[in-house]
Amino acid sequence: MMTTCLLEEGDISYHILTTEHTNEALMVLARAFCDDPACHALNERPSTTIKIALDDWVEYLDYWMDSCVENGISVVAIDVVKHSVVGVMANRHLLDNPDKFLKEYCSMQHTKALTPWNELAYFFEEESAKQLPELREPCKTADLIYLGVHENYRRKNIANNLVRASLPLFKKAGYKFATLEATNFYTSQIAQRNDFERIHRYDIKTWVKEGKTIFDNVKEPHGMFEYWVKRL
């Protein structure tokens, strides 16, 4: 059963993500993240022994889906003609991290294809939090954590509308801040359009793992991770 429409533009309507669309939403996100510029850079390195594939993103993102559905602040874009999910903005309380995810991706016990990418993202998030410690006070911050749009629906303002539709949900839930970690140039543009303020940026070409730079081949205009904050 569809939730109340948050926003509508053309044939696309925006709703709170529920269990009805969990599986579709997961696949839209996983396919979108396969196009992540840093992942492309990692896969193109001859020294990369474990290539990142769709299944890796499905596994990675699946750890987050239950909490992002249950919290009532994530948003899904629906093509009302085809009745299909075409975009997802998976949101969380900033301090929420699924235990199983932490065990698989944030410990020394496992090495997966996405481990280097996750280590970079975690490092960047920790450094960004130092710029505004208030973000990590209990119940203060909602995080726009995973944004993805189906490849056939890109450049149609859907990503921007997913962010736009999320913000009133955060405010209604009592959050004081919204955060967005942009791992590519286009997501930073969306943050700017929605009046976010950048508090930190990091050149991923300088990231070193085991004494080597591993993202130095990322293609322009990408290559900067940027952390954005909006006061609600």
Describe the protein:
Helices cover 35% and strands 25% of the residues. With 232 residues, the protein is an alpha+beta fold. The chain has a single domain, classed as Aminopeptidase (3-Layer(aba) Sandwich). Strands 1-2-3-4-5-6-10-7 form an eight-stranded mixed β-sheet, sandwiched between helices. α1 crosses α3 (54-70).
- How much helicity do the residues have? 25-40%
Question: Helix- and strand-based class?
Answer: alpha+beta
Distance N to C terminus: 30 Å
User: What's the order of the H and E elements?
Assistant: EEHHHEEHHEHEHEEEE
CATH class bucket:
Alpha Beta
CATH homology group? Gcn5-related N-acetyltransferase (GNAT)
CATH topology: Aminopeptidase
Per CATH, the architecture is 3-Layer(aba) Sandwich
Strand order of the largest sheet: 1-2-3-4-5-6-10-7
The chain-level mean pLDDT equals 92
How many H/I helical runs? 7
Provide a short characterization of the protein structure:
GO terms for molecular function: N-acetyltransferase activity. With 232 residues, the chain is of the alpha+beta class.
Question: What descriptors fit this protein?
Answer:
Acyl_CoA_acyltransferase; two-stranded antiparallel sheet; globular; Aminopeptidase; N-acetyltransferase domain-containing protein; 35% helix; 25% strand; single chain; N-acetyltransferase activity
List the topology elements.
Elements lengths: L6 E3 L2 E5 L5 H12 L3 H7 L10 H17 L4 E5 L4 E10 L5 H7 L9 H15 L11 E9 L8 H15 L4 E6 L2 H9 L3 E7 L4 E2 L2 E2 L10 E8 L1
Helix pairs in contact: 1-3
InterPro entries: Acyl_CoA_acyltransferase (IPR016181)
Organism: Clytia hemisphaerica
GO molecular function, one term: N-acetyltransferase activity
